[in-house]
Amino acid sequence: MELKEKIREYISNRRYVPLKFDELYDVFSPEASLAEFSDAVAQLGDDGLLIYLKKGKIASSEAAGYLRGTFRSNAKGFGFFMPDEQFRRRTGGDLYIAPENTLDAVNDDEVLAVMTREARTGDKRGSEGRIVKITEHRLKTVIGTLRTLPRDTRCYIKPDDRHLNFTVLIEDAGSVKPGTKVGAEITDYPTATLPAKGRITKEFGESDSSEANYAAILHENGIKTVFDAETVREAEKVAAMPVSAKGRYDLRDRTIITMDGADAKDLDDAVSAERTKTGFILGVHIADVSHYVRAGTALDGEAMERGTSIYFADRVVPMLPEVISNGCCSLNAGTDKYTLSAFVELDSEGEITGCDLKETIIRSSVRGVYSEINDILEKNTDSEFYDKYKPVHNGLLDDMTALYNILDEKSRRRGALEIETFESKIILEDGKPVDIVKRDRGLSERYIEQFMLCANEAVANWLFWQDMPCVYRVHERPSPEKMQVFAVFAHNMGLDTTALKSKNIHSKSLAGMIRQANEADIGNTVSYVLLRSLMKAKYSSVAAPHFGLAIDKYCHFTSPIRRYPDLATHRIIKSVLRGEAKGTYLNTLTEFAGRAAALSTENELKAIGAEREIEDLYKTIYMLEHVGEIFDGIITSVAPFGLFVELPNTCEGLVPIATLDGYFNYNEEQMTLSCGYTVYNLGKKVRVLIESADVISRRVNMRIITDEQLINT
Q: In this predicted model, what pLDDT tens digit does every residue of 646-663 receive, in sequence order?
């Protein structure tokens, strides 16, 4: 054990009585020099694990009542302390930090805090705190627009991030012109009397251009867009390898179909289905990416670092080079492809009774397109696409339809959450958004969703019952605090919340709430709030249930071209099939599963953030052309500072409270803004005028228009 850890363990012991520096050194002097001891104590202090009390005595920060956590700042100067999980019970939640109590902390700082005021039952004010030490500035860089100081040769950056309430002084901008969007490294952090300082490290272009903002978003989220030369060479080499059926279960004579969107290029899954005397055998055939991407190669290192492909409106940032993702691994119709196949045995109720995994070779019969299959399912022989799908129509599609209906009913019975969220489809012309519509999700998309869910569950159980490593997909139960807030909201929306009074909420209870909401025509609003009340799903090497799907064990197996956890699971499966998963190599696989799970969760969050920001950018650019126009919308969020309204095209904007006619009070429990008889709540339909759209902040501002105002316009 390191000296630092020994000291920490010693002062954290309940029997420890605070000692002065020299007294504590006496305890450790037999094994450490004074210099070594001083360094270790200083490091513990820097990490916020050790503090000096009055009279110079040393204690652990936790024993002294200090709390560790993260500071989240607000542009108005105040912020919130978010305690680490082990301290959350002591605080009961986040602590409000007044501007004078921030200790000049900036957003995302790791800090020590003390609680200065505890909220009481019925008290409208929340608990409050004070920052006592900044242990780490996690914010290292900022992105913003370079501007000039009045009557000065120096420049400054106003960060784009709305959480940051400071500017960064740039004493030497070199040849970079004002008005340029730049990235800068922070060299000095702001204090009460001095500004932050920094140096420019990246130029993106004119601050209000779409390309500059696009590039800045990718840079800020750490998204790599170019593969290095070694990775490309490796990819080209393995992609050129000939395909052979040797050593593989040959499925090339089976009727197998891929089903994906018309614009999809990386086709990584294909399906087959056949009836048996007792039910069905569902075949899910997944591109064998692990055959090409081997452990320890540059390709594998790059894939793990990226973690996932990221999809934007007009481009993809792939996890793997195109020669693999759209080439050798894409299950194109009529070509021989390596796959890893799961043959899932199901009874007549859709219960999984067995799973057989094999290394296979397939030749997809048809390149299925969702919109075309939906047309066939609706029109049968009258569909214009009927001839294309003749090889699969009478047998495979009929069996798939029957199996889907059984699995869909089973999903409802077990209480899986069917939260309807509408995805945007941004229509571009010459790189500019010209229309935004809701993406349709037809019957064939639901087929594939259910089949993939079934395969993922079967594979997770297959690995679990053999006591083998796996990268599980887990989803924890929602916290009681968030469920309590959701229950208040649901009650105010007129729903029966009796089922939410249980200590341990089951997904069936929430599924019932969604059905109630759909019947009352408020399903979208209730689903939106419920989604924000649930925990985020994550990857883990430890088996745990998936709350939202109501499945005990679940993993991702079906998309190894675009998700690293699927690729990791394939590698483990093939090691098991080949009898290699034993001894020291089994330990290696176990460690690999843990590392892949942690990195994949981190990369997924990064990708989601970038996708959301790019989508917001396009939506803002699109709404620029509609400033001054009037739309009908629905309130999707209520905050003390205003209302967020979503339009039918999924674009969202803010109605600032200052633009509302009257003095409005915010009710946190009921999620409303009210003034007399006028009440704005979630789900309320409103008519809005688009007042402005700012590309840099990606914010659309709106104003509510009454019928009387509409008549007078």
A: 998 889 999 999 999 889
